[in-house]
């Protein structure tokens, strides 16, 4: 029978670092970074670093010397962060990869006043509010639904935190408040205004 021989050469090279994909996270949140490394030997160490970030940021890395680390975004931070994972094998060779993390502000939370029951043609004060809207949130009041016979107008001023609404006929009106925060993020809530006849009858 015939025979042959094959020579196999083992080539040692630097390790390959494995980073998670780019991601978008909320300010103030903690996000897991699932890193890793591949090598023909043994990965001896891992190191996560923030190598580029907005000025004066407060974001940090937890467990930065582990394959699985965490990125904690500062409460007031926003913008693009560049993270680098470096792995070192048992021969002292290095490999690295990067992940982009975009931090955005937490969406605002619109806060509507409690519903009201009033006589028709009474002027109703609607005082809205918001959380996480930044330093200058924008407010928009809209009339979402009204009784069939009604010709009531949307609350005025429609772009202020406090607006006034006048229901004109007996029935139920739905008013929506939309709050727009930094970055164009929005949140809405709804308040019901129910009107009765002047003598208290529905």
Q: How would you describe what is shown here?
A:
The chain is an all-beta fold and 202 residues long. Helix content is 0%, strand content 50%. It contains no helices and 17 strands. The mean pLDDT is 91.
Helix content: under 10%
Radius of gyration: 30 Å
Question: Count of helical segments?
Answer: 0
Average pLDDT reading: 91
Structural class: mainly beta
Global geometry: elongated
How would you spell out the order of helices and strands?
EEEEEEEEEEEEEEEEE
Strand content range:
over 45%
Low-confidence stretches: none
Q: Please give the oligomerization state of what you see.
A: single chain
- In which order are the strands of the major sheet placed? 2-9-8-5
Q: How does the major sheet shape up?
A: 4 strands, mixed
**DSSP E strands, number:** 17
Determine the N-to-C terminus distance.
105 Å
Describe this protein with a few key phrases.
202 residues; mainly beta; four-stranded mixed sheet; 17 strands
List the helices and strands and how they pair.
Blueprint: E1 16-18, E2 23-26, E3 30-34, E4 36-38, E5 43-52, E6 60-62, E7 68-72, E8 79-89, E9 94-104, E10 109-111, E11 116-119, E12 124-127, E13 129-131, E14 138-145, E15 162-165, E16 171-180, E17 186-196
Parallel strand pairs: 2-9, 11-17
Antiparallel strand pairs: 1-4, 3-7, 5-8, 6-7, 8-9, 10-13, 12-15, 14-16, 16-17
Give me a quick take on this structure.
The protein contains no helices and 17 strands. It has 202 residues and is mostly beta strands.
């Amino acid at each position: 029978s015939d025979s042959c021989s094959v020579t196999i050469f083992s080539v040692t090279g630097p390790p390959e670092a494995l980073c998670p994909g780019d991601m978008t996270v909320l300010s103030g949140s903690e996000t897991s970074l699932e890193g890793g490394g591949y090598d023909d030997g043994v990965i001896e160490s891992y190191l996560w670093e923030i190598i580029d970030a907005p000025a004066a940021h407060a974001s940090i890395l937890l467990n930065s010397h582990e394959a699985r680390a965490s990125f904690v975004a500062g409460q007031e931070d926003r913008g693009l962060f560049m993270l680098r994972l470096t792995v070192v094998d048992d021969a002292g060779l290095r490999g690295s990869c990067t992940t982009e993390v975009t931090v955005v502000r937490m969406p605002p939370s619109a806060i509507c006043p409690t519903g009201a029951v009033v006589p028709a043609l009474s002027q109703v004060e609607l005082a809205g509010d918001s959380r996480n809207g930044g330093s200058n949130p924008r407010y928009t009041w809209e009339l979402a639904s009204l009784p069939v016979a009604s010709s009531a107008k949307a609350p005025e001023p429609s772009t202020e935190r406090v607006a006034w609404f006048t229901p004109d006929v007996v029935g139920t009106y739905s008013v929506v408040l939309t709050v727009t925060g930094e970055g164009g993020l929005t949140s809405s809530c709804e308040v019901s205004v129910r009107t009765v006849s002047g003598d208290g009858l529905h």
